């Protein structure tokens, strides 16, 4: 064979960084081994793993590689205080003015976050008794999870406590019971009103630039994704995103993330909630 398991893992890390900018720490060996098995299944490949990784390096199986090694942990209304802030502080001004609100979800994964944003808009409309014209662009680098998000079908359990008390899932989903070998499971499907609000696209946050206009967005959710990048690359991503956020727009970050160099250009208004006050010089 002529190589060690560590050689394989090092090559995976190098490839993943070159393709996505994502860094894997030294304590991810078990995860890498599991994802290698997933990669081989996705590629229907039974040969030597180093040969497969060399094929990726040469441009084959790139999508399968990225889809196998990206992490997609998410759920509806994760860190729900951000959605409360969106509902109570941000959205009322757009309801009152009639101005369209443009929002961006930078790591949509399987769709729970952008659909939570859309549900928050509909709840604000209900509370305020006014229409809100909202548009959400949601991107991810993983094509598999984007298809899952576009389909909008999820397993549901009343005991999961995934939805906050102020959200009634039955208003936004169609429910159906599906039988399988384990018995029955409840599935919920996103309704068309939510789907019409969201556009899903493939995008790599590590790209040199993004396909948006300057100051395009009133709200940007960039939560629990920066942690997969080096500190230097986190800063670069935030600066690129910042160009597309309007003055007065809101940036939501994950609980373990911070605004890096943007701290001089934003005002903190809540837990990892930042309002853009000026452009970067």
Question: What does this protein structure show overall?
Answer:
It is a single chain. The chain is an alpha/beta fold and 281 residues long. The chain has two domains: 5-69, Orthogonal Bundle (Chemotaxis Receptor Methyltransferase Cher, domain 1); 81-153 and 192-276, 3-Layer(aba) Sandwich (Rossmann fold), CATH 3.40.50. It contains nine helices and ten strands. It has helices at 5-20, 29-43, 49-57, 62-69, 81-97, 112-128, 143-151, 192-195, 231-243; strands at residues 101-105, 134-140, 153-156, 173-180, 183-190, 198-202, 217-222, 245-253, 266-270, 273-276. Strands 6-2-1-7-8-10-9 form a seven-stranded mixed β-sheet, sandwiched between helices. Strands 3-5-4 form a three-stranded antiparallel β-sheet. Strand 1 (101-105), helix 6 and strand 2 (134-140) form a beta-alpha-beta unit. The protein is globular, with a radius of gyration of 20 Å. The chain starts with a helix and ends in a 5-residue tail after the last strand. The mean pLDDT is 94. This is protein-glutamate O-methyltransferase. Its EC number is 2.1.1.80. InterPro entries: Bact_Chemotaxis_MeTrfase, CheR_C, CheR_MeTrfase, CheR_N_sf, SAM-dependent_MTases_sf. It holds the Pfam family CheR. Keywords: Methyltransferase, S-adenosyl-L-methionine, Transferase.
């Amino acid at each position: 064979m002529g190589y060690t398991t560590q050689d394989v893992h090092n090559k995976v890390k190098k490839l993943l960084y070159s393709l996505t900018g994502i860094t894997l720490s030294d304590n991810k060996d078990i995860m890498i081994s599991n994802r290698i098995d997933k990669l081989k299944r996705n590629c229907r490949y039974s040969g030597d793993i180093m040969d497969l990784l060399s094929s990726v390096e040469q441009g084959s199986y790139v999508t399968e590689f990225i889809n196998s090694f990206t992490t997609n942990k998410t759920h509806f209304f994760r860190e729900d205080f951000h959605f409360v802030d969106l509902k109570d502080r941000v959205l009322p001004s757009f309801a009152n003015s009639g101005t369209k609100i443009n929002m961006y979800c930078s790591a949509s994964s399987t769709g729970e976050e952008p659909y939570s944003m859309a549900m928050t808009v509909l709840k604000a409309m209900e509370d305020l008794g006014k229409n809100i014209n909202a548009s959400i662009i949601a991107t991810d680098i993983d094509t598999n999870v984007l298809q899952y998000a576009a389909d909008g079908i999820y397993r549901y359990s009343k005991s999961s406590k995934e939805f906050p008390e102020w959200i009634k899932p039955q208003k936004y989903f169609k429910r159906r019971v599906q039988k399988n070998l384990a018995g029955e499971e409840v599935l919920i499907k996103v309704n068309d009103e939510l789907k019409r609000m969201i556009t899903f696209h493939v995008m790599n946050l590590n790209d040199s630039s993004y396909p948006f206009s300057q100051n395009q967005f009133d709200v940007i959710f960039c939560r629990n994704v920066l942690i997969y990048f080096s500190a230097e690359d986190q800063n670069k991503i935030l600066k690129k995103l910042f160009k597309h956020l309007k003055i007065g727009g809101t940036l939501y970050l994950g609980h373990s993330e911070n605004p890096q160099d943007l701290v001089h250009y934003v005002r903190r208004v809540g837990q990892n909630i930042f309002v853009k006050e000026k452009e970067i010089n």
